[in-house]
Write a structure and sequence with these properties.
Helices cover 59% and strands 15% of the residues. It is an alpha+beta fold. The protein folds into 2 domains: 1-44; 46-79, Wheat Germ Agglutinin (Isolectin 2), domain 1 (2-Layer Sandwich), CATH 3.30.60. The strands form 2 sheets. Strands 1-2 form a two-stranded antiparallel sheet.
Length: 79
């Protein structure tokens, strides 16, 4: 009797491993891909130099005027 219970438990455990482990692996792959994509976006942030004060600022945060990037409105007005 105990042998049958252990055998059923072992079969249920194997079924659990077969079906649910694949789902966890797929979820982990998706999470890892998202993390890699986010890291790639962070690395692609380009820094530009302000022609007035010579400080570097992120291109996304800079002010574009006359094909030049400025760090602030003060630097833009002090051209």
């Amino acid at each position: 009797m105990i042998f049958k219970i252990l055998a059923v438990a072992a079969v249920l455990f194997l079924v659990y491993i077969v079906f649910f482990k694949k789902n966890r692996e797929k979820d982990n792959e998706i999470i890892n891909e998202k993390r890699r994509a986010k890291k790639d976006q962070d690395i692609q942030d380009e820094m530009v130099e302000c022609p007035t004060c010579k400080t570097y600022i992120s291109k996304d945060e800079a002010i574009l005027s006359s094909a030049k990037f400025y760090c602030s409105k003060e630097c833009l007005n002090n051209k």
